[in-house]
Amino acid sequence: MTTAIENMFKDKVLGHPAGLFVLFFTEMWERFSYYGMRALLVMFFTASLLDGGWGWPREHAYAIFGTYTSLVYLSTLLGGYFADKKIGYRYAVVIGALLMTLGHGAMAVETPFFIYLGLTLLVFGSGFFKPNMTSIISEMYKGKDEKKDGAYTIFYMGVNAGAFLGILLCGYLGEQVGWRWGFGLAGIFMLFGLLQFWFAQNIFGDIGTKPVKVDSNAVELSADEPKLNPFTSGQLTLIAIAGVLGLSWILNDPVAKISEGAYNLFDFSLFGMEGSNLAILSALVIFILLLVIRIPKYDKITRDRMIAVIFFAFITIFFWAIFEQAPSSLTIFARDYTQRVLEGNAAFIFKIVNTMMTIIPLGIITWVLWLLFKKTFSKYALSNIFLAINFLNDLGIEYHLPSLLIKNSFASAHFGFGLLDDPEDGATAPVLIGIFITFLGK
Asked: Which domain range does residue 237 map to?
């Protein structure tokens, strides 16, 4: 593995292996599709029938969006398990990208069956794709710790660029041309991102291939490793109960609201509490009970680390609760309660800022694309061709967009709120790509 890593570092782009930029662009198109579709979802559900939407009340749209987002994050457990134990990181990424492509295509049909099918495919696709891209980077930079921080920052510039462009283009097409066009565009970009990754995957050598089975009984812990704290059968039972209650609550919430109570797993009350509230609170109490039982049994170092994780996880709850308002309540606020027409000097300034924020980052990314082509085109021509097609599609749509995008509700809702989309890194807007990516090669 060490030899393979050293070989990858022989062909560099901006001081990093060319493989990093294959991941950069693959992730960029995946985030394009994810955030592009997400910008449309609540708007589509709440748009009137005359506007091609479903005419749902807001609380129904928020409920299904919340369940979709929750399942996207939960599905990473499934995708991570299969990648680690069964199929490897690379096949997990390919399967995830394929499922997401099919999901976006299904949503473009716009019928209830295909919308729900599309969301289901997107949930599982994200679960297989999302956690394993960063796992490949981690394997690529083993023994290269001084380069790893820069690599992750470059990678997440691709995340922000994709989120920005997806919101802009899918949002505009969805509202101004037709919802199916916005959903379909997300799928097209995801498809070409998949093909780009597939035809360049040999650039990673043995990294991310199918894992070799290891006999767990033959593995011996070194003296400085903490003692294991295996789960008892009783604890596993509690985990199963909490998991079933939590997952049932997530799935039941939109079903009960949309059906107006006709289908409700928790259609009862106990001690003056509604069944759904009792279910999720019971799951929470069981989870806390498990923490209280297990944490004292770890050694001091592991126990302190777990307590720190619990603290930051608790704080993170409130961050995500606020952050996920961007494609839901804040989008509705921008559509229904925001003046989006600029005139005079304000309109002129917006045109200039809009052009700079779109064209300058695209110019810099095109430069990076050219550097990647020079390093990899001879060996991975098809991958580079599909990457170029995606960029030409993007530039073509950008060229035909109206200059005064503030008239588009997505431009107001996500142009501001969406600049912070995918906050896994510290960057706040794709404009920063040009600043960071130039200096991180050193």
From this structure: 231-323
